[in-house]
Structure formats: structure tokens, C-alpha cells
Amino acid sequence: MRFPRATRLLIDRDFVALAPNRCWVADFTHVKTWSAVVYVAFVVDTFSRRIVGWSAATVKETVFVLDALEMALWQRDRDQQPVTAGELIHHSDAGSQYTSFRLAEHLEAAGIAASIGSVGDAYDNALMESTIGLFKTELIKPQRPWKTLAQVELATAEWVDWYNHRRLHGEIGHVPPVEYETNYYTELTKPQVTTTI
């Protein structure tokens, strides 16, 4: 069964947010290992391109995309930039994990609006497709063969840290996502200079 309120496309391929925690995109991919297929889910903040949450599992059930969402919420709380109810959109494709009652209820309880792209249209989640493409190109393909879930998890944690803190992103001025967000919050806290005539 599907949750009716989670079928709206709220972002209409506009992947540029004006501030952090306004629009997150989510999706997952698979990695073949010797022991099993590993599924890796990501949540990306469209403002900074920062990967705010991720999760890996050997089953592609709703719980593993929920784990990525939970990490994203925890990460923002830890950074003292928590999500404000009613301000955030969570966008994904129409996969069963993202249209499940369990995820929809979780989003609603957190005050997060659900946005679902149209079926079979990669452009509706293009930013996430791009991030997964980088993950595959920069980490998964060069280091294969992969042996276990634990090996993929460790390598993904290291890659996400590099991606967020050191990788330069052209879309945000050739700085890492964490630096881009830090600059944004620094500008917000600068005292306003007023001139008198």
C-alpha cells in the first residue's frame, strides 16, 4: 500500500535550496560483493550538496532508507543546526522503500514534507543520480572487487567524509560542502553594518 500524501512532486527538478535543511534528496544504489549485494542509501542537502546521511544493508527494505534519514537528522542536531518542522522537503524517486507507510509516517511525525518523483524519470531526482554516479566512479569501481558489507561500509564512511570536507564542488564555488555551509552560517551571524549620513 502507498501513502497518498507522499505522491506529490514538490520540487519540480529545482535542486537549488536557499538555505540548509530546506530540501533533501534521497536514493540508493547497489554494490556487488563476494558475500551479498550491498545496498547503500544517501540523503543529500541540495543547498550545499552535503551528504547528511547514509546507510548500507544487504536487504533493500524501508528500514535501511530510514536509517539514512535518521543519520541525517542526527547529523544536523549534532551540528546544532536541527531541522525545523514544516521547513524541509524530503524528495526521492517512487521506489517502494520511499513510498512506504513507514517512511511517510516517520516524515510526517518529524514535520518533513514528502516529495516523490514520477515513475521511471531519472531527471526528477537528477542531483541524487549525480551523487550516486560520483560514489560509483570515485569509490566503488576503482576499488573492486568488494568482499563484504563491512568493507563497503568502512569505505563509504571514509568517502563521505572526504566528499563533505575536502572534495571541491563546482556548483557551490569550488569549495567542500561543509565549508560552504559554514560560510553561510558565518554570514548570517555577522553584525549588520549601518551607515549614517
UniProtKB/TrEMBL annotation:
Domain Integrase catalytic stretches: 16-184
InterPro entries: Integrase_cat-core, RNaseH-like_sf, RNaseH_sf, Transpos_IS3, Transposase_IS3/IS150/IS904
Domain of life, source organism: Bacteria
PANTHER family (alphabetical): TRANSPOSASE INSF FOR INSERTION SEQUENCE IS3B-RELATED, TRANSPOSASE INSO FOR INSERTION SEQUENCE ELEMENT IS911B-RELATED
The protein's name in its UniProt record: Integrase catalytic domain-containing protein
Taxonomic placement: Bacteria, Bacillati, Actinomycetota, Actinomycetes, Kitasatosporales
